[in-house]
Automatic annotation (TrEMBL):
KW Transferase (keyword) present: yes
Domain of life: Bacteria
Protein known as: Pyrophosphate--fructose 6-phosphate 1-phosphotransferase
Record site: Important for catalytic activity: K134
Pathway assigned in UniProt: Carbohydrate degradation; glycolysis; D-glyceraldehyde 3-phosphate and glycerone phosphate from D-glucose: step 3/4
Residue intervals of the Phosphofructokinase domain: 5-297
């Protein structure tokens, strides 16, 4: 099928999302059936308003710089689409002879891609829709892991190791340090902080994930015990932790985002206040890595960078093979050494669904992860990336205005 292709990025960006973009662009520019390669500015906004950029006009150095640039170079936008707006997007694609559409994003984005695929089929318009996985939350189903997770995990683990070095430097004046991670309803990122304790520091670490009910009274007892034994403690809380009834901790302060989901965050501040007011004289502070954990390119994983790039290329391979309405998957091969193979799964099987952290990998009594998780995550954080520098700072490449 001959025509143009369109690429969009969606949801929260990652340190490696532009590697998937680069992989799609590179492969599409080499494909004889692709006439023009477009990118939609600001994700859904560009799709709705036909705000496209001709990616084929960019120079080779500009494109190559994408591989070392965090954030979404095309831009993203959180917006809940109506059925009518999905139809408008398909009409715009038809008007521009878009025959291949690649959507880089998480489970919500895969839902939108599925709706676009269905709308094109209903209209009788031949459009090949392929989703490319991306999320630091690692909550996409049907794939061993998602590009973006490994780098965010490496960033957080490095941060925890650095923090523990600082805490050890002041053994007589420490307090409880609470670090809040992203992850929405899953604890993958919070669990990854355990990697920072694999070097012996003597600083106790407690990890709380959404999949295991949070008990405030037990939390206070655990913190008090660790402090009495060690004089300090590091506490990792996922932004989406819930109590036994399924209620978000500190939910009274939450608002809704542009797509109607609770805008998570603030649980670390809440727990800091719980400790200082109810913790028998303990002092506490909280640290919010916030968006830094998903944009820290200096700590990105070499494996993650390469897999994101290859996920983009395989999206094009799948499209050329006639695969449609599907998402690229990464599946771990059963070998003595780490390797993945790239497959595909229908969008309807991943759209809007979440992969939770396995409770069999988590010890709810000690609030720490088990050996199986370390076996899973260590391969994903391997390798370093050399960032091009200018005047002592990273040199990045963006397209959006």
């Amino acid at each position: 099928m001959t025509g143009n292709c369109l690429i969009a990025q969606s949801g929260g960006p990652t340190a490696v999302i532009n590697n998937s973009l680069y992989g799609i662009i590179e492969e599409s520019l080499q494909s004889p059936q692709i006439q023009k390669v477009y990118g939609a500015r600001r994700g859904v906004y560009g799709l709705l308003n036909q705000d496209y950029i001709d990616l084929g006009q960019l120079s080779k150095p500009q494109l190559e710089m994408l591989r070392m640039t965090p954030g979404a170079a095309l831009g993203s936008w959180r917006y809940k689409l109506s059925t009518h707006e999905i139809e408008i997007i398909v009409a715009h694609m038809q008007a521009n002879d878009i025959r291949y559409f690649y959507y880089i994003g998480g489970n919500g984005s895969m839902h939108v891609a599925h709706l676009i695929h269905q709308a094109a089929q209903k209209k009788g318009y031949e459009l090949n829709v392929i989703g490319v996985p991306k999320t630091v939350d690692n909550d996409l189903t049907q794939t061993d892991h998602s590009p973006g997770f490994g780098s965010a995990a490496k960033f957080l683990a490095t941060s925890i190791l650095d923090m523990s070095m600082d805490i050890m430097s002041l053994p007589k004046s420490n307090r409880i340090t609470i670090v809040e991670t992203m992850g929405r309803n899953t604890g993958w990122l919070a669990a990854s902080c355990a990697l920072g304790m694999q070097q012996e520091t003597g600083i106790p670490l407690l990890i709380y994930i959404p999949e295991s009910p949070f008990c405030e009274e037990k939390f206070l007892r655990d913190v008090q015990k660790k402090y009495e034994q060690h004089g300090s403690a590091l506490v990792i809380v996922s932004e989406g932790i819930r109590d036994g009834a399924g209620r978000l901790i500190a939910d009274s302060a939450l608002v809704r985002d542009a797509v109607g989901r609770p805008q998570l965050g603030g649980v670390a501040g809440y727990l800091k206040d719980v400790i200082t007011t109810q913790g028998a004289g303990l002092s506490a502070r909280y640290i919010l890595p916030s968006i830094w954990q998903r944009s820290g390119m200096m700590f990105s994983s070499g494996v993650d960078v390469e897999e994101a790039y290859l996920a983009g290329k395989h999206a094009c391979y799948h499209a050329k093979q006639g695969i449609n309405g599907a998402m690229v998957t990464l599946q771990r091969k059963k070998r003595p050494f780490y390797a993945v193979e790239y497959g595909s799964v229908p969008l309807k099987e991943v759209a809007g669904k979440e992969k939770l952290f396995p409770l069999e990998w988590y010890d709810a009594d000690s609030h720490f992860v088990k050996a199986e998780f370390f076996d899973y995550i260590y391969p994903l954080i391997q390798g370093e990336v050399s960032i091009p520098m200018k005047n002592g700072l990273p040199a990045y490449q963006y397209f959006i205005s």
